[in-house]
Design brief:
Elements lengths: L4 H8 L1 H14 L2 H24 L6 H15 L2 H4 L6 H11 L1
Helix pairs in contact: 1-2, 3-4
């Protein structure tokens, strides 16, 4: 794990020792990074769509196409099984309201 002098100095404070240990344990945990990967799999298509809307060129047809792809993405059983039951549906519902 990469650490620097400021991190070591911060950890010397007694009240931060437990917090620092928690952070270090999370960053070295395979489960933490697996969860990050799962979240990125769910949200990456949303960011692709958002980046598409931030262009100067006319892109409405591309936006409609990406919205359709995003709807399919939310119904993908491989994505749904990565998260607690109902979470993907809640994200999908929130997206539809926007």
């Amino acid at each position: 794990m990469v650490k620097d002098a400021q991190w070591d100095e911060w950890l010397k404070g007694k009240k931060y020792k437990t917090d620092g240990d928690d952070v270090a344990n999370a960053l070295t945990s395979a489960q933490f990074w697996r969860r990050i990967k799962n979240v990125l799999q769910l949200t990456d298509p949303i960011f692709v769509l958002l980046r598409l809307t931030d262009r100067q060129a006319p892109v409405m047809s591309k936006i409609y196409f990406r919205c359709f792809q995003l709807q399919e993405h939310f119904h993908n059983p491989d994505i749904a099984k990565l998260f607690p039951e109902g979470l993907v549906d809640a994200v999908h519902e929130h997206f539809q309201k926007r």
